[in-house]
Amino acid sequence: MVGVGTSLFSTRPPLSWEFAALTDVGRVRAHNEDAVHVDPVLGLAVLADGMGGYKGGEVASAMAVSLVHANFRRWYVQAGPQAPARVVRRALQAATDEANAAILEGSLTNPNLQGMGTTLVLAAFGPHRVMVGHIGDSRCYRLRNDKLEQLTRDHSLRQQQLDAGAITAEEALSSPNRNLVTRAVGVEAQVLLEMHEHTARPDDLYMLCSDGLSEMVPDAQLFTLLTRQDGGIESKVSLLANIANENGGRDNISVILARASLPRAAT
Questions:
Q1: What pTM value is reported for the model?
Q2: Per-residue pLDDT tens for 105-161?
Q3: How far is residue 197's CA from residue 200's CA, in Å, rounded to a whole number?
Q4: 116-129: b or e for each residue (b if 16 or more CB lie within 10 Å)?
């Protein structure tokens, strides 16, 4: 599959990416305010967790995912898979800006959608690089060489308190501020998509998820589930959602997995 962000002169064999995605309402909420989308041709994965009541949350997350994808696709048609990283960054921020403006306008003009917004986590997967961006507390993890690493840092009041040493990691698990985000799409006139570029390697497994998964399944259990050898990534996304529900399912659960591999001729 073709992605973005590769170097034109790289001598390393290009990686291909396999994707799987799932969103589940959970066991407590009546409606699903999450949205996910994967475009294997673009190498783009987008996940959003809406806020503002079920109508507003559903609308905001759906708008974010749809608009980011459409805007990025228009850029990709012009730039192609060989665009340098700085251009990919601009394209992803521009796509986020369009979604932010549209969601904010909807919130201000439609009383039924007042106060809506959404978190956002996305990744552009290329033959050699991965560009990860996020807003809010939806996360991206990477499993590499039997090590699970959280690549994003939550934009949340709880994370700020952790960084300041005001609470311990143990206290953070039950913090009443764990769902208060400090950055969201559609809430203010401008929002910055925090982005980081990562070198991709064969057998890397990236996971994008909403807090309905990360709050219900601790990192140690995520590691165990992601490293299971039985089944492919399609079965893994189902397993992750099932375990989150078994652990309480207090929120909507969304997850996207992307696994890198070398073409058969290059292995």
A1: 0.92
A2: 999 999 999 999 999 999 999 999 999 999 999 999 999 999 999 999 999 888 778
A3: 9
A4: bbbbbbbbbbbbbb
